From TrEMBL:
Protein name (Swiss-Prot/TrEMBL): LacI family transcriptional regulator
Matches recorded under PROSITE patterns: HTH_LACI_2
PANTHER family: LACI-RELATED TRANSCRIPTIONAL REPRESSOR, RIBOSE OPERON REPRESSOR
Species classification: Bacteria, Pseudomonadati, Pseudomonadota, Gammaproteobacteria, Enterobacterales
Keywords: DNA-binding, Repressor, Transcription, Transcription regulation
UniProt signal peptide: none
InterPro entries in the record: HTH_LacI, LacI/GalR-like_sensor, Lambda_DNA-bd_dom_sf, Peripla_BP_I
Species: Leclercia adecarboxylata
Any one GO molecular function term: DNA-binding transcription factor activity
Chain ranges of the HTH lacI-type domain: 9-63
Length: 356
């Protein structure tokens, strides 16, 4: 069957049918524009009759604003990022911005798809689980396009970033495990050189070392299911095996739990305590009940959008680094200390002396 062709309806035709000016049609379809309810209803009625839809591309050429935010994510295995994507899309929609998704590679470098992003005349860019090279950071700065790194950071400071307090949270995890009387510690990291992994590993090891614990097994799962399982095998095959493990995110932590239980017959938390990071959905499932450092998605998304819109509206890019505090949500995958666990709004959380 031959595809039907339609003649585009113009705003001028809508104005003629509604008996209003063309600018009234424009204001009707511009969120926040001043127009009387009666005029707006006449325009909408005429638009429905004619099948008119405003041309967003044409409007972006006139206003030099696309109202599109490019979002790059590369790690959908981790349920944290689909949750972030949904919250980000909903937040932008309330502000009449639209999210355009790009999928990066597993190495976490966005340079390969940067040209594609720029072709869409995006007003801003959010990079989640990926990073931007120094050259491209400079190019975005020169082009006046704000960039916010979500759950990542970069050394140059040329892009804004929003993170949870990775290092402080990792220290708190170490304090929790020490307070519960553990003796043999391990860390299962993500990608060894990622900013988030480095911060979590640094905080965990530093807190243990301050208490005289120097011998900590460090392996990397590279945020990959198969590599994480191999790393867990290596830990539990050792003699003696660790009795306390901090895993850099929940996606890998539940894999470590499965290997411990089903491949080595270990009891959690009686034989080994396991703590994750992110507090994603499966962490709260009864089958895992994973103690985890939470990342407050809604607050992090709100901070990200605030940074973007402030720089878009002002036309000035002044990078800011925002840290959003989380909390250690205590469930049943790790032995609890005798002190420090409190009930907060229906969740058990760990509170150190410094937090009180």
């Amino acid at each position: 069957m031959k595809r039907k062709t339609f003649t585009a309806v113009t705003s001028q035709q809508v104005a003629q049918l509604a008996g209003v000016s063309q600018s009234a049609v424009s204001r009707t379809f511009t969120p926040g524009a001043s127009i009387s309810p009666a005029t707006r209803e006449k325009v909408l009625k005429a638009a429905r009759e004619l099948g008119y839809r405003p041309n967003a591309i044409a409007r972006s050429l006139n206003t030099a604003r696309s109202r599109i935010i490019g979002v790059v994510i590369s790690y959908f295995d981790n349920q944290f990022y689909p949750q972030v994507l949904e919250a980000l899309a909903q937040k932008l929609d309330t502000l009449n911005y639209h999210l355009l998704l790009f999928v990066g590679d597993r190495e976490g470098n966005v340079d390969r798809i940067f040209d594609q992003i720029m072709q869409y005349r995006v007003d801003g860019i959010v990079l989640a689980s990926v990073t931007l090279s120094l050259d491209l950071s400079e190019e975005c700065l020169a082009a006046g396009i704000p960039v916010v790194l979500f759950n990542r950071s970069e050394e140059s400071g040329m892009a804004s970033s929003v993170n949870s307090n990775n290092e402080a949270a990792a220290r708190q995890i170490a304090e929790f495990l020490l307070a519960a009387g553990h003796q043999r510690f391990a860390y299962v990291g993500g990608v060894a050189d990622s900013s988030v992994n480095l911060a979590r590993q640094r905080g965990y090891l530093a807190a243990l070392q301050e208490q005289g614990v120097e011998d900590v097994r460090v392996v990397n799962g590279n945020y990959d299911a198969h590599q994480t399982a191999r790393a867990a095998y290596a830990l539990f095959s050792a003699s003696p095996a660790p009795d306390a493990i901090f895993v850099a995110n929940d996606h890998m932590a539940v894999i470590v739990m499965d290997v411990a239980r089903y491949e080595f017959g270990l009891r959690i938390p009686e034989d080994v305590s396991i703590i994750g990071y992110d507090d994603i959905g499966p962490s709260g499932w009864a089958s895992y009940a994973l103690t985890s450092a939470s990342q407050p998605v809604e607050a992090m998304v709100a901070a990200t959008v605030d940074l973007l819109l402030k720089q878009i509206d002002s036309g000035t890019i002044e990078p800011e680094q925002v840290i959003v505090p989380g909390r250690l949500v205590v469930r049943h995958s790790a032995r609890r200390p005798h002190r420090g666990t409190i009930d907060a709004e229906g969740n058990y959380v760990f509170q150190t002396q410094e937090d009180k």
